[in-house]
Amino acid sequence: MNEDTVKKIAQGYGNDPQQLIAVLLDIQAASGKNYVDRKWADEVSKLLDVPLSKVFDVLTFYAMFSTKPRGEYLIEICQSAPCHFCDAKQVINWFETAAGIKMDETSTDGKITLSRTSCAGACEIGPIAKIGDDVYGNLDEEKVKTLVKNCLEGNLKKETLPCQK
Ligand code: FES
Fold first, then answer.
1. C-beta neighbour count of 148 within 10 angstroms
2. How far apart are CA 137 and CA 125, in angstroms?
3. Are 127 and 87 in contact (CB under 8 A)?
4. How far from chain centre, in Å, is Cα 98?
5. Where does 73-160 sit in CATH, by number?
6. Candidates 77, 78, 115: which one to mutate for ligand 1, based on the most atoms within 8 Å of Cβ?
7. pLDDT computed for residue 165 by the predictor
8. Which of 128, 134, 135 has the most ligand 1 atoms within 8 A of CB, as the residue to mutate?
9. Is 120 near ligand 1, meaning CB less than 6 Å away?
10. So what's the pLDDT on residue 40?
11. Which of 20, 81, 105, 155 is deepest in the core (most CB within 10 A)?
C-alpha cells in the first residue's frame, strides 16, 4: 500500500468528495491489514478536497473502519437480538477457542481479528459471522473451526464453506 495506490483508488471515484466512504473502504481493503493509516487519510483529504477533520469523522463514526492495523481476516460476529437468541454468545466462545485470542484481539501472525457487529440482514440464517463482504450462517462449532483454520492458512474461499447469503 503506497501513495500511488491511494491516488488510483481516489481517481477510480473521480476524486469525488461524495464518494469519501467508498474511497476509504477501498483503501482499507487494499491495506492488507483492514485499516486506514493516518498518512492515507491525509492523502484522501487532499485528493478529494475534504477537510481532514471530516475524513476522521467518518473513520471514527463508522464501526467498520479502523485507524489501527487489524488482522488480514476481520471476523465480525453478529450480536444483535435475533442472532443473540440463536446462541451468538456460544459462537464467540467457539471463535475465541479456535483462534486462541479474545474478542477485539488480533492473532500474533496478523491473520485474524475478532470483532462484534450488529445485524447484517441475514437473521434467518443466524447465528452469523461476517468475514470481509461474506456472511457465514447457521454457525456451529465445526463450521467455526473450519472458518478459523482456513483464515489461519490464508485460504478462505467461499467454496470451502459456502457463503449462505
Ligand atoms: S441479527 Fe444477526 S444477522 Fe440479523
1. 25
2. 5
3. yes
4. 19
5. 3.40.30.10
6. 78
7. 47
8. 128
9. yes
10. 96
11. 20
CA distance 26 to 39: 15
147, 129 in Cβ contact below 8 A? yes
What grid cell was written down for 115? Answer: 470483532
> Is omega for the bond preceding 51 within 30 degrees of 0, making it cis?
no
Name the residue ranges covered by the structural domains of the chain.
3-61, 73-160
- Mind listing the pLDDT tens digit for each residue in 123-154? 999 999 999 889 999 999 999 999 999 999 98
Judged on CB neighbours under 10 Å (0-12, 13-18, 19+), 146 is: middle
**Residue 5 identity (one-letter amino acid):** T
pLDDT tens per residue across span 73-127:
999 999 998 888 887 789 999 999 999 999 999 999 999 999 999 999 999 999 9
